[in-house]
Amino acid sequence: VMVQRVTYRRRLSYNTKSNKVRKVKTP
Fold first, then answer.
1. Cut 0.70: pTM above it
2. What are the residues whose beta carbons fall under 8 Å from the beta carbon of 20, sequence distance 6 or more?
């Protein structure tokens, strides 16, 4: 099963305007 991992630029683990969200495909 491929899980879409979302990595944030900052340490906050939630989506904010200051946090640019980057979707990364991980095996």
1. no
2. 8, 9
